Every structure is written in structure tokens, then in C-alpha cells.
Amino acid sequence: MNSNRAIGLAVAQMGPVNLADSREAVVRRLLEMLREAKSRGAEVVVFPELALTTFFPRYWMEDEGELDRFFEKTMPNPRVQPLFDEAKKLGLGFYLGYAELTPEGRRFNTSILVDKTGNIIGKYRKIHLPGHSDHKLEAPFQHLEKKYFEVGDLGFRVFDLHDTRFGMCLCNDRRWPETYRVLSLQSAEIVVLGYNTPSVNIHWNEPVHLRTTTHLISLQANAYQNALWVAAAAKCGSEDGFHMIGSSVIVAPTGELVARALTEDDEVIVVKADLRIGENFRKHVFNFAKHRRPEFYRLIVDRVGAGEPLP
Length: 311
Ligand code: CDT
Fold this sequence. Notes:
This protein has a six-stranded mixed beta sheet. The protein has helices spanning 23-39, 64-68, 81-90, 145-148, 177-184, 208-225, 276-283, 288-291, 298-302, and strands at 6-13, 44-46, 93-101, 107-114, 120-125, 158-161, 164-170, 190-195, 229-234, 237-239, 242-244, 249-251, 257-260, 267-274. The chain is built from nine helices and 14 strands. It has one domain (6-286): Carbon-nitrogen hydrolase (Nitrilase/N-carbamoyl-D-aminoacid amidohydrolase, 4-Layer Sandwich), CATH 3.60.110.10. The protein is 25% helix and 25% strand. The structure holds 4-methylsulfanyl-2-ureido-butyric acid. Residues 49, 130, 171-172, 175, 195-197 line the site of 4-methylsulfanyl-2-ureido-butyric acid (CDT).
């Protein structure tokens, strides 16, 4: 258990990664942010979802060979190794999102948690995959996560890093209360996540400002209701003309925004996250053992979609 009950928590937001950008160039940007985070007191750094490439699910691809270039067959691998080496040298833990191709040929939208000695101590594969698998010819771009990835098979798990209990999720997972509740029932203290959220909704005419509003409200409500810190890292700005929202944030268990990125570029935000704030909520208003009534929550696991009222 973290005895001083506070941890230096950094979010390393990324500006755009274009199709033409090499992995080496992207990793150099991550290294620079690692060093800055360290100099500002960070112990753990959170990078975005699919941090090593452009947000490729916006492109329709039929050829597996074309798709393969966005995926990592091993982790670490020679192109990403400098990130592991630098984090180890600096004594930093980190969270990183990337596209995973397993030796069996399975594809996942994945994140890992790496400790300060450079060991991968946790892996998560995205469960709530948004978008579609068909080619939407009328849409300005695609959102093909349902075509390119399988639903994650590792569940929502909690990992000990720097004597602090971390839960992971990825992007669309942050909009689902079940994500945080399953993690908080395992006594998670911090939930870390990366995201790529297009500013334009291809399904209906959603005002652009709502994309940021619903992002923030999801994080703030779930941080409070689960007595957690939440650290969320965007990849944002215009990737080859396709814009994604920024507003990377660190949210306290009070639901308050403690730090927020100002730009749509590479930008590091850091807070000293006092874990005792979450403890207070867990002891009192959200003392789960004392107040939860799971006998009345059965529908949450028995039903997937909304149905008829109970008799
Ligand atoms: N990458 C990802 O999961 N993006 C989704 C877009 C869906 S729009 C509601 C997100 O939830 O941000």
C-alpha cells in the first residue's frame, strides 16, 4: 500500500499522428513527454489509445496486409523499446494504448501498464467497441472498430503499480458506468484511459460542443460515484484533416477537474493525486458494503438491451 497515499500522476496528451508519421517519430514525441512528466514530479504517465499510429479505424481497408502496418505483433518491439528504456531510466510507470495482433492472428484494441522497471504488469483489451463493421459510403469517414477488433477477452482488472491500485479502460469504455463499478468493486483507486474521439458524429447531427461535454460528464460522474481518480489522455487535433477533441483531464474522486489540457497538441498535465480523498468517500457515502443493494440490480447483468418493465 502506498504509505504516503499520494502519487504523481501525469497525462501525456498527443496532438495528431498523421498516416505518414513513422513509429520512430511518434516514440520520440512520447520520450520527450516522459522526460517532462518526470521533471514535473510524475511517477506514472498515461498515454492515449492507439498512441503509436493515426486513428486508423476511420479508414475502410479490405486488405489484411494494409491493416497489419497499424498493429504491433509483440510488445515491446524494437521500435517501441526506447520508450520502455527511458521510462526505466527515469523510474516511471506508464500506460500505453496500441493495436495488438496476437500470434494466433487475433486483433485487439489494447492497453498496457508498465512498472518503473520496464515490466508489463497489466494488459487490457477494449470491451465496449463503438462504431460499425460495414462500409458507410455516405459518411465523411468510418468508425470501424467493430470490423478491425474483437471484443476484449481479459475483463476489467485491477493492478498494483507504485503501491496504488490501478484499473484500465479505453475510450468508449469511459462512457459506461459498468466499467468503473466493476473496477471500484475491486478497490481500484485510479482509472487510467486513453481516447480518440472524433469531433463529428457520423450517425446523427450532434453539436460539436456536446462531444466534449459528454466526455467530461462521463469522467466526472463516474469518478465521484466510484470514489476514484480518473486520468484520461486524448489523441487530438486534426489527423490528415479529421479532427478529434482534446480536453485531456485528471479528475478527483470529488468529481472535480483538477487538471485539463489547454491545447490540441502534445501536452503534459500533472497532479499530485491524494488517494485519501477517495478513501473518505469509500468509508462514508459510497461505502459499498454498507449501502449497495445488489438484489435490486439483477437486470444489469440479466439484460443487455432495454426491454419491458418488470411485472
Ligand atoms: N475510440 C473511441 O472509442 N471513440 C468513441 C467514439 C464514439 S462517439 C460516441 C468514443 O467514445 O469517444
